[in-house]
Description:
6-stranded parallel sheet; 16 helices
Amino acid sequence: xxxxxxxxxxxxxxxxxxxxxxxxxxxxxxxxxxxxxxxxxxxxxxxxxxxxxxxxxxxxxxxxxxxxxxxxxxxxxxxxxxxxxxxxxxxxxxxxxxxxxxxxxxxxxxxxxxxxxxxxxxxxxxxxxxxxxxxxxxxxxxxxxxxxxxxxxxxxxxxxxxxxxxxxxxxxxxxxxxxxxxxxxxxxxxxxxxxxxxxxxxxxxxxxxxxxxxxxxxxxxxxxxxxxxxxxxxxxxxxxxxxxxxxxxxxxxxxxxxxxxxxxxxxxxxxxxxxxxxxxxxxxxxxxxxxxxxxxxxxxxxxxxxxxxxxxxxxxxxxxxxxxxxxxxxxxxxxxxxxxxxxxxxxxxxxxxxxxxxxxxxxxxxxxxxxxxxxxxxxx
Length: 380
């Protein structure tokens, strides 16, 4: 069988996008994964990167290369990447997959002439531009990696049309679109009550997502509306989530539920009526986001309420899945949610049911196979 190397400096066993990717690759060859954490499902072999090794050049010497704009030296300077070079020495592969820009140089260094598939999970030059040190030191490295290695990659992909257009504009490479969609679920829309609208949100409790906007909006609405939140604490030790719980205190219509595994989310969410996600456009990736949770809502057969976020708005309007708020403020969300009548919610849930096949991973898996199969055939 063809040997495929899948590189992702993430905890792959918990990285939904990479796990779906590995599942398709495993149908085409023997997959070796390299990343943090344990052996992911679908991989024949896994090379575990020690958790303490950073994926960016954050050592004293590495930071110096960034500060001095020595991009070629910085490409392979990160401790995790140096570990990977040693671990992969002498191995040969028929395809190398680079998940995100930070591993592009590594992927090409170990490919040995094999084709490289670059899968870009977001707009790499602005991954963390809200952090000053990242904006000053790391963003230029990401631009360098994209400019040098994307044109050398056999195929490229990214998460949505708008971000694909940015890569074409800045680097002259038009990626295919492989969305963060989920496998199709054999679910039916649950009945809608005439006197209740059961809202739900799932995801990470991260400051920039402004989850307090949803809480404030539900507090301002009448008793028909309830909101359940399935939140995974962010990297702040749960401080932001605790602040949300304090903000919702005294309103028994807002409940914090225990998080569930990503694969179980559609079935868990199926008992609700409307999925809500209103994220302010604080940076490019937020402005263009098309996240897993959107597709969770569809597979759960829910109506959807979002802010005027480009890619989510596009799909909500194309498939008539729900309501797009006029803006991102609390008043905008109150008006959008307040417009939901029982009949409208039933219509939106029926639209999700109708769109579930098209908006499932089966559609995106076909794109992956179309990208990868010719590359492997060429190596046979």
